Amino acid sequence: MEEYTLSASSGVVMVDRCTDCKGIWFDTGEAGQL
């Protein structure tokens, strides 16, 4: 897993990415912040 930091209008959001399948997922509330 890798963590990416994204800048959004609501602030900074951390996104997790699987290095095997290249999928991404969000922890609780992160998707709404984007």
UniProtKB/TrEMBL annotation:
Protein name: Transcription factor zinc-finger domain-containing protein
Species whose genome carries this gene: marine metagenome
InterPro entries found in the cross-reference section: TF_Znf
All residue ranges annotated as the Transcription factor zinc-finger domain in the record: 10-33
